[in-house]
């Protein structure tokens, strides 16, 4: 008989029949400790199969309990008996014999040299180049393996990422909610497409956000050169200086157009893609010209005739047509009110003292 002291001054007698229980608990603690040390989930799962089998002594019952086939169980039991827990790990499934590359070092050197000279060329281009100029028939897949082995693919990707970062350094000035205007000189510009008998014309349109004075001209192409021409005509038309310009991201507002604004020291802002609300004022004016001019008068076969109609409409829009937003005043009256309210604002005025009335 053994004595186990549970409390001070008190003893409990445990018979030798409980020795087997103590041994089982001891083994259980060891198994738990092993499971905690093992991080591989598959090893833990297979070790549970083995421990359950040792507990029950019945392989078929173990298979039914865990839902595995006897073939699978005996395979892992055999490995466990031979190698212990290490035997329960997944083995490397790579074939013992692998196909070795048969390309000669000289060919590899040629591929590497071409890639370093032309880092953006694809495997197909390098393969075609070697066949055409070096009379060497190398498949694109072979070229790819060589490039990958020498990490030349990653190098090209790195070059592309560096180039992308360089492009981002010259980011466009953007406005998410549109430019604010508390005085004349903030211009919104956009382009509208016009169609006549299969021909396409382009209406460059501009509006001052503060006074709502608008201007438009029609051209045969939508180019940055025509964008620059339009802006020069706009400067002559407006009675005030242009300080800020907001456009979308079209190519007609880059190139010569953008360079001209920089030369004139005029701030150029771009709206975010798929954000028409930032250019809402000029979009609205384009709709107005469509409903009040082109739907009624119709388009003409020549640009000169359409520009003549458009200029006549601009005179009505800027000098005669009441605007609800302006408390039923005209844009010209809005500008005159601003001049009268703020005496001495000559820095706002252009060389023109008032709008040209045709």
From TrEMBL:
It holds the Pfam family HTH_32. GO terms for molecular function: nucleic acid binding. Residues 180-339 form the Integrase catalytic domain. Transmembrane segments: none annotated. This is Transposase and inactivated derivatives, IS30 family. GO terms for biological process: DNA integration.
């Amino acid at each position: 008989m053994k004595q186990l002291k549970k409390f001070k001054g008190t003893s409990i007698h445990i018979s030798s029949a409980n020795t087997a229980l103590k041994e089982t608990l001891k083994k259980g603690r060891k198994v738990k400790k092993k499971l905690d040390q093992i991080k591989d989930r598959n090893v833990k799962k297979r070790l549970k199969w083995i421990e359950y089998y040792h507990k029950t002594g019945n392989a078929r019952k173990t298979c039914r309990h865990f839902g595995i086939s006897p073939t699978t169980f005996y395979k892992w039991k055999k490995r466990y008996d031979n190698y212990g827990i290490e035997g329960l790990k997944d083995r490397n499934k790579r074939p013992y014999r692998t196909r070795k590359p048969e390309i000669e070092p000289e060919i590899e050197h040629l591929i590497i040299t071409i890639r370093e000279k032309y880092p953006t060329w694809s495997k197909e281009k390098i393969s075609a180049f070697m066949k055409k100029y070096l009379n060497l028939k190398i498949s694109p897949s072979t070229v790819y393996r060589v490039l990958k082995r020498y990490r030349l693919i990653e190098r090209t990707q790195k070059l592309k990422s560096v180039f992308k970062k360089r492009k981002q350094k010259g980011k466009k000035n953007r406005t998410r909610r549109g430019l604010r205007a508390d005085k004349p000189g903030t211009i919104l510009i956009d382009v509208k497409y016009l169609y006549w008998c299969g021909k396409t014309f382009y209406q460059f349109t501009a509006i001052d956000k503060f006074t709502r004075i608008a201007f438009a001209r029609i051209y045969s192409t939508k180019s940055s050169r025509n964008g620059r021409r339009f802006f020069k005509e706009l400067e002559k038309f407006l009675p005030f200086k242009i300080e800020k310009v907001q456009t979308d991201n079209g190519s007609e507002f880059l190139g010569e157009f953008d360079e001209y604004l920089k030369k004139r020291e005029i701030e150029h802002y771009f709206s975010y893609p798929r954000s028409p609300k930032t250019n809402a004022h000029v979009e609205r004016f384009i709709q107005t010209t469509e409903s009040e001019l082109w739907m009624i008068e119709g388009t003409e076969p020549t640009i000169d005739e359409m520009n003549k109609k458009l200029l006549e409409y601009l005179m009505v829009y800027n000098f005669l047509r009441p605007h609800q937003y302006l408390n039923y005043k005209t844009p010209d009256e809005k500008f005159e009110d601003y001049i009268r309210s703020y005496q001495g604002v000559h820095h706002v005025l252009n060389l023109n003292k008032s709008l040209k009335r045709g």
